[in-house]
Amino acid sequence: MEIERRHGSLIKGIRAMYDEATAKQSSESTFLTMRYGLMTIVEALERELSAKIIKKGKRVQKISKQAHGYELTVSNQEKIQADSIFIALPYHEIIPLFGEDAIFEEIGEIPSASVATVAMIFPKNAIEKDIKGSGFVVSRNEDFSMTACSWIHKKWPHTVPEDKILLRAYLGRRKEESIVELADKAIEETVLSDLNRIMKINQAPEFTMITR
């Protein structure tokens, strides 16, 4: 990448560009979300749609391609006809639904990786040396365990108390997944070590949540 070539690393390049780029930006976040979370969209749809349309507590067991549309077999062997379907599942769970149908056969060849998400809450005064912006991604060429980190309190200020800071870091990439299997404490220490190479944090997090 050009930034890495000019500055020696992606992180150094981003640091060098921050002052110039952010000086022209508004102090307000450019990221948008629902005030009370994305779940409010689902809840609103559920209120508006008929109970006959929404089927809860049922698992789709099989999907069959028909001449026109699809037939879904759910957990009680009920058959549902559909003109089209939208699937929100990990790809490895999609293939068995179609049985011997080769429609999604190539999906199984898509490479995947296990990742961990680390959310940490700090008091506002724990950050001695912050960086501008709302997060960063890490190049594979960098000697970091993290792959990215987001400043949630900057992206969506309404989701975090004014006296707190919420950071969300990501670890794990293809062929480098062993870190995801470490104990929670080891993962937390790894993230803090990486962050302190970029900024200055003088306290341990008040709360940490790790999901894999």
Describe what this molecule looks like in 3D.
Its cofactor is FAD. This is Coproporphyrinogen III oxidase. This protein has 212 residues and is α+β, with helices and mostly antiparallel strands. The chain has two domains: 52 residues, no CATH class; 99 residues, Polyamine Oxidase, Chain A, domain 2, CATH 3.90.660. It has six helices and ten strands; from the N terminus they run H-H-H-E-E-E-H-E-E-E-E-H-E-H-E-E. The strands form three sheets. The chain has a five-stranded antiparallel β-sheet with strand order 6-7-8-4-10. The protein has a three-stranded antiparallel β-sheet with strand order 1-2-3, with no helix packed on it. A two-stranded antiparallel ribbon has the order 5-9. The protein is globular and about 60 Å long. The two termini are 30 Å apart. The relative contact order is 0.15. The mean pLDDT is 82.
Question: What does the main sheet amount to?
Answer: 5 strands, antiparallel
- The fraction of residues in strands falls at 15-25%
Rg calculated over all Cα atoms: 22 Å
Fold-level CATH name of the largest domain: Polyamine Oxidase, Chain A, domain 2
How many strands in all?
A: 10
How many DSSP H or I helices?
6
Subcellular location: Cytoplasm
Cofactor: FAD
Family: Belongs to the protoporphyrinogen/coproporphyrinogen oxidase family. Coproporphyrinogen III oxidase subfamily.
Catalytic activity: coproporphyrinogen III + 3 O2 = coproporphyrin III + 3 H2O2
